[in-house]
């Protein structure tokens, strides 16, 4: 109960900027969780075995990589005698690439804007501090100098607390996305060599 009260006090001291910061944080963690689940390979083994299992219709699951393998197998059976198999596979892989990148722009935007929102809270807090100095209301209802500085520091801290783990997760998930995209390209090459 004490932790909840302390958290509510911090939110109140941070001013109205804490509300968009909290919403950004919740949305960012949703995007991270969704990307994490979406970037699951869903298959153990080599690319050649993945393609072989896809051609034999033995794949289980619904990950992007497995669906791309199934799609490559279906395309192979439809176009195996056709000379444009590679171009058809390349065109179809764009759908899977877009799916792999889903929520990436949202996550990147939230990671970039969280510190800026914290900075906005800093500016608002400093304005409040200077206003209390100008009015000589050092001990006002809002806390005067201490309240303004507190608001400035709390929102800056919140913005950084949101952005730093978000940035680390974003970098990790980007790397994962690149690896899965490379696997899809390798899959196309294997199918074209059959």
Structure report:
The chain has 194 residues and is an all-alpha fold. The chain has one domain (16-193). The chain contains seven helices and no strands. The protein has helices at residues 2-14, 18-38, 47-55, 64-79, 85-100, 104-135, 144-193. Helix 3 crosses helix 7 (144-193), helix 5 (85-100) packs antiparallel against helix 7 and helix 6 runs antiparallel to helix 7 (144-193). It starts with a helix and ends with a helix. The relative contact order is 0.16. The mean pLDDT is 86.
Question: In summary, what is this structure?
Answer:
The chain crosses the membrane at residues 13-32, 106-127, 147-168. With 194 residues, the chain is mainly α. It has one domain (16-193).
Task: Outline the secondary-structure elements.
Layout: H1 2-14, H2 18-38, H3 47-55, H4 64-79, H5 85-100, H6 104-135, H7 144-193
Radius of gyration: 25 Å
Q: What's the mean pLDDT score?
A: 86
Could you tell me how far the N terminus lies from the C terminus, measured between alpha carbons in angstroms?
Answer: 64 Å
Runs in which pLDDT lies below 50 for 5 or more consecutive residues are none
- Number of domain modules: 1
Alpha-beta content class: mainly alpha
Work out the helicity level.
over 70%
Gross geometry: elongated
Order of helix and strand elements from N to C terminus: HHHHHHH
- SS element count, helices: 7
**How many β-strands, per DSSP?**
0
Instruction: Please summarize the sheet with the most strands.
Output: none
What percent of residues are in strands? under 5%
């Amino acid at each position: 109960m004490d932790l909840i009260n302390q958290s509510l006090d911090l939110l109140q001291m941070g001013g109205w900027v804490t509300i968009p910061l909290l919403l950004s944080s919740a949305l960012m963690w949703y995007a991270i969780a969704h990307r994490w689940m979406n970037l699951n390979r869903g298959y153990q083994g080599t690319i050649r075995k993945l393609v072989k299992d896809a051609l034999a219709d033995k794949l289980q699951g619904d990950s992007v990589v497995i669906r791309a393998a199934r799609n490559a197998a279906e395309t192979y059976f439809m176009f195996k005698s056709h000379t444009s198999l590679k171009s058809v596979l390349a065109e179809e892989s764009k759908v899977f690439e877009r799916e792999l990148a889903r929520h990436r722009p949202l996550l990147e935007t939230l990671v970039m804007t969280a510190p800026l929102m914290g900075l906005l809270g800093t500016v608002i807090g400093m304005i409040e501090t200077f206003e209390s100095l100008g009015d000589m209301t050092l001990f006002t209802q809002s806390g005067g100098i201490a309240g303004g500085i507190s608001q400035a520091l709390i929102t800056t801290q919140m913005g950084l607390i949101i952005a730093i783990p978000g940035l680390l997760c974003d970098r990790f998930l980007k790397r994962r996305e690149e690896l899965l995209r490379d696997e899809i390209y390798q899959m196309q090459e294997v199918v074209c060599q059959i």
